[in-house]
Amino acid sequence: MIYRKCRVCGYPMDPGEGRNGICDDCVNKASLHPYGEKELDMMLSATVWEQMKMEDFINVGSATLQRR
Fold first, then answer.
1. How confident is the model at residue 41, as a pLDDT?
2. How is the chain split into domains, by residue range?
3. For residue 56, what are the CA distances in angstroms to 12, 43, 51?
4. Contacts by residues 30-36 (CB-CB < 8 Å, ≥ 24 positions apart)
5. Which residues contact 25 (CB under 8 A, 6 or more apart)?
């Protein structure tokens, strides 16, 4: 039996699991990391924000459908 482990975190993997020696969790974290961190920084640094009402969502959705 061949022992396989993730090259990033060292987690033991089953045969056929992961990509190029990296477990699925590390692959998913690497693909989501740049976008999630950037959006989080933008939200935290925002100084002006407004909570939207349900009517705003409904109006935006109907305006988008009418433009098509």
1. 81
2. 1-46
3. 48, 20, 10
4. none
5. 9, 11
Share of the chain above pLDDT 70, in %: 76
Contacting residues for 3 by C-beta, under 8 A, at least 6 apart: 12
Tens of pLDDT, residues 31-48: 766 666 777 788 788 887
Only one residue has tokens 């020696």, namely: 21
Q: Is 26 exposed, middle or buried (0-12, 13-18, 19+ CB in 10 A)?
A: middle
Q: What is the distance between the alpha carbons of residues 61 and 30, in angstroms, rounded to a whole number?
A: 33
Whether the model pTM is above 0.70:
no
pLDDT higher than threshold 80 for residue 2: no
